[in-house]
Design a protein that fits this description.
Helix content is about 50%, strand content about 10%. With about 350 residues, it is of the alpha/beta class. It has a single domain, classed as TIM Barrel (Alpha-Beta Barrel). Strand 2 and strand 3 form a beta hairpin. The relative contact order is 0.15.
Length: about 350
């Protein structure tokens, strides 16, 4: 098996820098769109055969060093008792958001063996089909991000309802976060037991917080999830989007590898995190739309900043844009492999 990704997660010496891409299976690929035109997004996620097929599309096309399961961070919400729909042009909507103590009380915390069985079947199918070529990454939304969706009823610019509860109803906030954390932990443990070989925890919206609020209201719950996975022995990547101001606290919350976005230079971020952790990132996804010469310069710059230090995993600072071309994504992967190859 190509295990360079897993070895990099463990900060072992590797022959080249491994690369995979957030949202590497998606709308920029024709194979994906052929399925998407016939199925809704939720149908694709809930059909294990289709989810497995989509997971493998970029592995077959791009020569990436890891697969990441095709799913969505909101999938556990239905098992928790929430009505989720994905509307065209508006993104996900939760039709019964959390706004009161009664809403928190009705959150179901299912055991590992009962949560999203279709996701676990997709993992088993991918592991069978991938035949050991590359490792499979499972993932979940972090407690703050999932709770934010539940409170706001979807994505938000300012997270006013979320912060109103966090500051004005602290006991309710902590009860909500406790329940959400237990769901996420059970969900991720089930993924590992189904065959996921690494885990990424996505805190997509945590950049809306300052350091003090993150420390008090969020960090304990991310730490609970990460610590709860330690006995399973798989690498854990902790990605806090737009979280440059929080890096030291994100490290304290936990993770073998800390993911960073493109808003901070990789060498600065790694120095702040500490070299006892790996780092993942961090090219701007928009570079995939730039001239090849610019892409090449940006790739080399990030690799130079990593200085061949063990523990670097190359990735975008966020997901692949739908406007990207497959041939440009392929070129990025090839550049990383070529320019990082060790003597």
């Amino acid at each position: 098996m190509n295990d360079v990704f897993l070895r990099a997660c463990r900060r072992e010496q590797v022959e080249y820098t491994p690369v995979w891409l957030m949202r590497q299976a998606g709308r920029y690929m024709d194979d994906y769109m052929k399925i998407r035109r016939r199925r809704s997004f939720l149908e694709m996620c809930k059909n294990p055969e289709i989810a497995a097929e989509i997971t493998l599309q970029p592995v077959n096309r791009l020569n990436v060093d890891a697969a990441i399961l095709f799913a969505d961070i909101l999938l556990p919400l239905e098992d928790m008792g929430y009505e989720v729909e994905f509307t065209k042009g508006e993104g996900p909507l939760i039709n019964n958001p959390v706004r009161s103590g009664n809403d928190v009380e009705r959150i179901r915390v299912l055991p590992e063996e009962e949560i999203t069985p279709y996701v676990m079947e997709a993992i088993r199918l991918v592991r069978k089909e991938i035949a050991g070529r590359v490792p499979l990454i499972g993932f979940a939304g972090a407690p703050f991000t999932l709770a934010s969706y539940m409170i706001e009823g979807g994505s938000s610019r300012d997270y006013l309802n979320c912060k109103k509860m966090m500051w004005g109803a602290k006991d309710l906030w902590h009860e909500l976060m406790s329940r959400v954390s237990r769901v996420i932990l059970n969900y991720l443990r089930a993924q590992v037991k189904a065959g996921a070989q690494a885990i990424q925890l996505f805190d997509s919206w945590v950049g809306t917080l300052n350091r003090e609020d993150y420390r008090e209201y969020v960090m304990p719950y991310s730490k609970l999830v990460i610590q709860g996975l330690k006995d399973l022995g798989v690498p854990i990547i902790h990605f806090a989007n737009n979280g440059s101001t929080l890096l030291e606290l994100v490290k304290e919350a936990g993770g073998d590898v800390i993911g960073i976005d493109w808003r901070i230079n990789l060498d600065e971020a790694w120095a702040r995190i500490g070299y006892d952790r790996g780092i993942q990132g961090n090219i701007d996804p928009a570079v995939l739309l730039a001239p090849r010469q610019i892409m090449e310069e940006k790739v080399k710059d990030i690799l130079n900043r990593a200085e061949n230090r063990p523990g670097h995993i190359f990735n975008l600072g966020h997901g692949v844009h739908k406007e990207s071309r497959v041939e440009d994504v392929q070129a990025l992967v090839e550049m990383v492999h070529e320019y990082s190859r060790r003597a």
